[in-house]
Write a structure and sequence with these properties.
Structural class: alpha/beta
Number of strands: 14
Shape: elongated
Largest sheet: 8 strands, mixed
CATH class of the largest domain: Alpha Beta
Number of domains: 2
CATH superfamily of the largest domain: P-loop containing nucleotide triphosphate hydrolases
Strand content: 35-45%
Number of helices: 7
CATH architecture of the largest domain: 3-Layer(aba) Sandwich
Helix content: 10-25%
Length: 296
């Protein structure tokens, strides 16, 4: 019989043990569950299930769990100091184990501290997750976290905000925009570009027909013959991890500029499907473009 494995990552104090324990109490008692912990925190598993503590996750530990308990479900709680290695983890599984989900837990109250002091440790955990749960939220913390555009780090994951009163909200603003959509023009500063970019990919129709003004860097990419391309280089988790986030523009509208020219663009937003977006995203019909004093 196949064994479903749920892998939990997150810094110490992020709520991994508490979430696993709540889940275990809600499971069908007929299911045989086991928890494998590579971290000993302040909380304990109170559910009546076997808990295996280990200093290191290994194929030997997993084989012993399989042989001794014959589980239906395994919860793995990794050490918050470890860098998640999902491929390496799966290679250590017994043949009948399969990874159902990678869950990253984030403590909203300590997020700002850790993102300032250990950004790599935070982001490398978010990057591998299929679901990110940000707990202990207040409305103020939720607003702050939404403004961080964490979805840019991992657009394939579900993001959820769990509040101190235990109600849950989707991280994505599905009923409101960060930007004022009441006027004729949306001014997008470089600091706001990550917010706009993520929102435009999550809700491709939200900005359709609006006029935007923003500064972008031209990138004449021979591998993208159907569009002109502009975008910005952005730091996703640390200075050593910088990526270019491209925006499609109608062909021929940036031909007078050179690659790496910084250009102030006024454009009408349409939508298009593009591999670089992994789905739909913005297509700029440029009304006016002028080279700025800043260049990269």
């Amino acid at each position: 019989m196949d064994v479903r494995v749920f892998y939990f990552t997150g810094l110490l104090g992020s709520g991994k043990t508490t979430f696993i324990d709540k889940t275990l109490h809600d499971l069908d008692p007929q299911l045989k569950s086991v928890v494998v912990c590579a971290e000993v925190g302040d909380e304990d598993i109170t559910a009546d299930v076997p808990v295996v503590y280990t200093g290191k996750l290994s194929w030997k530990v997993f084989d012993e769990v399989q042989d001794k308990y014959q589980p239906d479900i395994v919860f793995i709680e990794d050490d918050g100091q470890n860098r998640p290695d999902i491929n390496g983890l799966v290679k250590m599984f017994p043949d009948n184990w399969f990874l159902s989900q990678v869950v990253c837990m984030v403590n909203a109250a300590s997020f700002e501290h850790f993102i300032n002091t250990a950004p790599n440790q935070v982001m490398e955990k978010i990057m591998v997750a299929s679901m990110v749960i940000i707990n202990r939220c207040t409305q103020q913390l939720a607003d702050y976290l939404r403004d961080q555009s964490l979805r840019m780090v991992n657009r394939d994951a579900e993001f959820w905000l769990e509040f101190v009163d235990e109600h849950v909200e989707n991280y994505i603003r599905d009923d409101e925009s960060y930007f004022d959509l009441s006027g004729d023009m949306i001014e997008i500063s470089p600091d706001e570009f990550p917010v706009w970019y993520t929102e435009a990919l999550d809700f491709p129709d939200r900005f359709e027909g609006f006029t935007v003004n923003l500064d972008l860097m031209v990138d004449h990419d021979e591998d993208t013959p159907e569009y002109d391309v502009a975008g910005l280089w952005l730091m996703t988790c640390c200075e050593a991890d910088v990526a270019f986030y491209p925006v499609a523009c109608k062909k021929g509208m940036l031909k007078e500029f050179e690659t790496e020219d910084m250009v102030n663009i006024t454009a009408i937003v349409h939508r298009t499907e593009w591999d670089a977006y992994q789905g739909e995203g913005p297509l700029l019909e440029i009304i006016e473009a002028r080279k700025t004093e800043t260049s990269l």
